[in-house]
Amino acid sequence: xxxxxxxxxxxxxxxxxxxxxxxxxxxxxxxxxxxxxxxxxxxxxxxxxxxxxxxxxxxxxxxxxxxxxxxxxxxxxxxxxxxxxxxxxxxxxxxxxxxxxxxxxxxxxxxxxxxxxxxxxxx
Length: 123
Fold this sequence. Notes:
The chain is an alpha+beta fold. The chain has helices at 8-42, 80-86, 102-122, and strands spanning 54-60, 65-71, 74-75, 78-79, 87-89, 95-97.
């Protein structure tokens, strides 16, 4: 049985896959920076330093990568950003209702990252 053609398209696609990790790392870094910016903007300003205390960490494993956003504003052993997000009791017996600001701030970051990854994979 004979065949006609060559492997040019397949080889080109495979070569592209070998460089995708570098582009994927760049997309992770961009999502991390964009997420910090979005969280800084979304954090209520009357919270002291919480808005400016955001940072991110990228963890890379053999089969997956993860972006973690953290907030370094810890008061009395509690993370202020999470107290704002989920609510908390007060020292006088009251309760401050949580404000969901983290999820809406990061939703567009996740969507943009997903589009960037699909674009890289599909070419």
